[in-house]
Amino acid sequence: MYIEIDFNSEEAIYVQLQNQIILGIAMDTLQDGDVLPSVRQLADSVGINMHTVNKAYSILRQDGYIQLDRRRGAVVSVDADKRRALQDMKEQLQVLLAKGYCNGVSRQEVHDMVDEIFDQYDGKDNR
């Protein structure tokens, strides 16, 4: 697993880490049952604090993307609670779409962008 952190980004490091793991799952580079690096290993390889990795892993566990196992460590385990995922997505999209609307982005441009993003995930099972 390759993780790249932008230390100049305004986005928190733990959020960058979470997003890259979620994208890895969506793009099938990380699959259900894959073991993620230990907190110490990931912190050392990326050059960040162990507490940052621990925070990202804890949130990923709470959100249903991984399970924390004493023997195996962090394991990709996607939660099938689709309703919760859709509600979270809707809340985030409402703000993003409002920003786009205020900046003159058309409905068709949004649809085209969504299609383009979903095309990246083609061939994957819908979870």
List key phrases describing it.
6% strand, 54% helix, 127 residues, 5 helices, two-stranded antiparallel sheet, mainly alpha, single chain, 2 strands
How would you portray this structure in words?
The structure is a single chain. The chain is mostly helical. 54% of the residues lie in helices and 6% in strands. It has helices at residues 13-26, 39-46, 50-62, 82-102, 107-119, and strands at residues 66-69, 73-76. Strands 1-2 form a two-stranded antiparallel ribbon. A hairpin with a 3-residue loop joins strand 1 and strand 2 (73-76). Helix 1 (13-26) packs across helix 3 and helix 2 (39-46) packs across helix 3 (50-62). The longest helix is centred in the C-terminal third of the chain and has 21 residues, at 82-102. The two termini are 21 Å apart. The mean pLDDT is 89.
In DSSP terms, counting alpha (H) and pi (I) runs of 4 or more, how many helices?
Answer: 5
SS strand fraction: 5-15%
Distance between the termini: 21 Å
Radius of gyration: 16 Å
Secondary-structure element sequence? HHHEEHH
Assembly state (oligomeric): single chain
Fraction of residues in H or I helices: 40-55%
How many beta-strand segments? 2
Low-confidence stretches: none
Largest sheet: 2 strands, antiparallel
Shape: globular
SS class? mainly alpha
**What's the average pLDDT?**
89
Strand order, main sheet: write it out. 1-2
Summarize the structure.
The protein is mainly α. It is built from 5 helices and 2 strands, in the order αααββαα.
